[in-house]
Amino acid sequence: MQSLDVQLRSATTTASPQARGAGQPVAKLIDISKCIGCKACQVACMQWNDLRDDIGTTVGVYDNPVDLTDQSWTVMRFAEVQRADGNLDWLIRKDGCMHCEDPGCLKACPAPGAIVKYSNGIVDFISENCIGCGYCIAGCPFNIPRISKKDNKAYKCTLCSDRVAVGLEPACVKTCPTGAIMFGTKDDMVARGVKRVNDLKERGLQKAALYDPAGVGGTHVMYVLQHGDTPEAYSGLPADPKISPWVSLWKGVTKPLLSIGIGLAILGGFMHYVTRGPKEAHDEGDKA
Amino acid sequence: MSVAMKSGDVPRYTANERVNHWAVALLFILLAASGLAFFHPAFYFLSWLLGGGPWARILHPFIGVLMFLLFLFMILRYWNDNKIQAYDREWGKHMADFINNRDAALPPIDKYNIGQKQFFWVQATCMFLLIASGVVLWRPYFAALFPIPLIRIAAVVHAAAGFVLIIAVIVHVYAAIWVKGTIRAMVRGTVTHAWARHHHPLWYRRITGNTK
């Protein structure tokens, strides 16, 4: 299945093969100002990936399913937000993996090769290596991975890495009837996003912005937000996502430092023995 | 109180105590191996001790609960023996002498020295931190009940407490190897009179009634 070059591999301390050079980074651009909330992308995702979530229940809003699951790798989140001028904004965000340039899930994952980042920027779960510990959930700044109750493996959007590898666009992009979801090189998508943001500004949306958060090194899924000053209004899109300092501490300096500490403790004991010798309890009459 | 000593040895641990200790010790080895496997890829091969990554992930928490429960018995058994006394602090001032095998200067102490007592309290603390943070991390059963920011903190606490426990056990095992005549206390249950008199004179007097 995998025909993309791996750039980063979870729980691996040596470099990945690099002879073929860095791939052209790709990105998906989701223009929220063009989204009509039809959920065709949800259906296309299910159809291409052969996913079938359980029938849910209606909770009084359009959100259905109400959350990402191991079978729903993308969901539309509908937010009704009252503007300062009293008018209503209906903000519809296609939620799913953001494919971070600096992926927190990959950083947290303890299973070698269970999470990879391809040279084109796609972050993918290689589920047969997954051990089901859920560390990726703790590592993710966007609360995306979900563990299946059937097989205890973590799942999320693959950015259709299997389609992209053979030159196809992701299924959601293919199906979007309004062209709100676009796919191409990261550079092209940024250029397109910036252009659209400028269009929106000309049309009165002064705070429109491209969402490509620097805190995670940029993302390979970007949004055009009509109200770029309040990303949280879009069903809690984080304004400044970054890998939690707790995760950085846990998976950063701690790992080599504590490992060396354990080695030094054993070595220290051994060296103490060979320099100071054993402690003997002497029999009656011996001194000390 | 005088103790009958068939073999001329001093009893230190009963059979129940020894079984309890070694059950905890064996479970600790499985937990340390699988825990290190999750901690650093350099140790990932240790997960095979429990049957590979997914099995290690499945078994580690259950083994952890078992070790915690068995260790609770040890806490109850040894709580009083490990209260740090004035003579322990006095003994502690001679730590450099102790480490360099200059034992003549050491003041008399009871069943455990201050290092052993500190080991006991460090272990007890780590066990509670590990079980509390471990439940927060436990998938698929409990982790989903906790907010993600708490899970992140629990991961750091679990790693730190596990590290301290592993280091403490390394010191504990080394001390048993270093101080000759110690391992048999936990294997055979007895120590020699010389050993007891030398390392734990107050304890020796207390259980043998021998004031020499």
Summary of the model, kept short:
Chain A is of the alpha+beta class. Helices cover 26% and strands 18% of the residues of chain A.
Structure notes:
The complex is a heterodimer of chains A (288) and B (212). Chain A is α+β, with helices and mostly antiparallel strands and 288 residues long. Chain A contains 8 helices and 11 strands. Chain A has helices spanning 40-49, 104-108, 135-139, 161-164, 171-175, 186-202, 245-251, 254-276; strands at residues 6-9, 26-31, 74-82, 88-96, 115-118, 123-125, 146-147, 154-155, 181-185, 209-211, 221-225. In chain A, the strands form 4 sheets. A 4-stranded mixed beta sheet of chain A has the order 9-2-11-10. In chain A, strands 1-5-6 form a 3-stranded antiparallel beta sheet, with no helix packed on it. Chain A has a two-stranded antiparallel sheet with strand order 3-4. Chain B is mainly α and 212 residues long. A two-stranded antiparallel ribbon of chain B has the order 1-2. At the A-B interface, helix 3, helix 7 and helix 8 of A face helix 1, helix 2, helix 6 and helix 8 of B.
